[in-house]
Amino acid sequence: AGPLARESLLLTAPIPEEQLLVFCYLWREGGTKWGRFVFVAGEDMAKPLFLSHADDAPFEGESLRDFTVAGLNWRQPEEDALKAAEVSFGGDGLELEIRFDGIHEPFSWHDNADGCPDWVAHERFEQSGVTRGRLSLNERTIEFTGAGHRDHSWGTRDWNYLQHWKWMNCATPDGAASLHCMLMNVKGETLVNGYINTAGVLSPIVDGKATAELDDQMIHRAVSGVFHDELGREMRRSGPPAA
Q1: Of the candidates 186, 183, 188, which has an alpha carbon nearest to the alpha carbon of residue 169?
Q2: Which of 24, 100, 162, 228 is the least buried, fewest Cβ under 10 Å from its Cβ?
Q3: CA 82 from chain center: how many Å?
């Protein structure tokens, strides 16, 4: 509880072959107030193909194992709740079903050298995965399989500390390698959080550099970067924006 208390769950499902991105987000503020949004973007991110936002919506369910907020249903179908998630939504012309399977164990920011700042969250985990699903919108129906990302965080969320940040997630379609990196500029310092995952081995990031190409609307069109983990491994990424 409290004015800056927040809990959130996020799931992204890029569908690059269709030039689409699905983004689902649920949050709880002050311990009791729930909200959610569902976003489907095409090539022009400034003009969403679909956007539905609900504030102060009722929470339906007994726990986070299986619950619904304003038509967005979120389930943890496995006995181990951190292995998979199933998300569905129907309404306003969109029908959406996504299954997310993690390709590694969830990663806690507390495992990074900079830790999880108490103004970001009490705890948060990030997880790369494979998404499988079906999307129907405006008489267009797509079945897809690809990379994805989810996170869950809770605690104080005071973004006033942040002067600038870069939040990046990417993975190969087969799940063989993935990256999560958050670069935060705070009080003149740069904090680094995230991981590199290759060959089934997950390791905390120790440094990262990224450059974004922005269009005249200040929307990302390309991102490149280089990152290193505690095992001394290097990962480079280039191409379209991170999810």
Answers
A1: 183
A2: 162
A3: 15
User: Which amino acid is present at 103?
Assistant: I
Give the HSE-up count for residue 13: Cα atoms under 13 Å, Cβ half-sphere: 30
SS3 readout for 131-185: EEEEEEECCEEEEEEEEEEEEEEEEECCHHHCCEEEEEEEECCCCCEEEEEEEEE
Query: What does the pLDDT look like over 202-224, one tens digit per residue?
Result: 999 999 999 999 888 888 888 99
* Whole-number Å distance between alpha carbons of 147 and 47: 23
Single-letter amino acid, residue 160: N
- What global pTM score does this model have? 0.93
Instruction: Give Cβ neighbours of residue 148 (< 8 Å, ≥ 6 apart).
Output: 11, 12, 13, 14, 98, 100, 128, 129, 130, 131, 171, 243
Mind spelling out the 3-state secondary structure of 66-85? EEEECCEEEECCCCCCCCEE
- Which residues lie below 8 Å from residue 124, measured CB to CB, with a gap of 6+? 108, 109, 116, 151, 152, 153, 154, 155
Strands 33-41 and 20-29: antiparallel
- In whole angstroms, give the CA distance from residue 205 to residue 192: 7
CA distance 83 to 125: 12
Beta partners for residue 84, in sequence order? 101
Tell me the pLDDT tens digit for each residue of 158-214. Answer: 999 999 999 999 998 888 999 999 999 999 999 999 999 998 899 999 999 999 998
Question: What is the token pair recorded at 40?
Answer: 């489907």
Residue 42 and residue 49 in contact, taking contact as beta carbons nearer than 8 Å: yes
Closest CA to 32 of 3, 74, 53, 65: 3
Contact 163, 185 (CB under 8 A): yes
